[in-house]
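Dear H.,

Thanks for agreeing to be a second pair of eyes. The structure we're designing against is below in token form, covering all 95 positions.
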């Protein structure tokens, strides 16, 4: 039996948003100047990062899958990331 497609499996996840604390902080000027912002947009599988209409880097942290890819592509000093506080964040329902 084949597993369901990835989009169906991801849709089964549940996200509990921590509205009091964002677990991602971007140094906006440094991230733009270093190219980190473009890499974050290109590499995040959850599309957490995008360019806002005002030219800043928008961070929609509620959709974070906690995969760590952004830490691998960010230059030093451009990104602070930690797991959401206990009970918050993604709750995987499939594998
Ligand atoms: S941990 Fe993964 S899903 Fe979350 S912001 Fe970073 S790259 Fe995106």
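And this is the sequence the design step returned. I haven't edited it by hand at all.
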């Amino acid at each position: 039996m084949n597993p369901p497609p990835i989009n169906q499996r991801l849709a089964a996840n549940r996200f509990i948003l921590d509205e009091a604390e964002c677990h991602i902080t971007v140094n906006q000027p440094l991230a733009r100047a270093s190219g980190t912002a473009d890499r974050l947009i290109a590499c995040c599988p959850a599309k957490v990062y995008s360019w806002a209409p005002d030219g800043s880097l928008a961070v929609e942290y509620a959709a974070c899958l906690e995969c760590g890819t952004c830490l691998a592509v960010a230059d030093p000093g451009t990104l602070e990331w930690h797991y959401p506080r206990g009970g918050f964040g993604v709750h995987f329902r499939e594998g």
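Two observations from my side: Residues 65 and 90 are 6 Å apart (CA to CA). The helical segments are 6-11, 28-34, 36-43, 69-73.

Warmly,
E.
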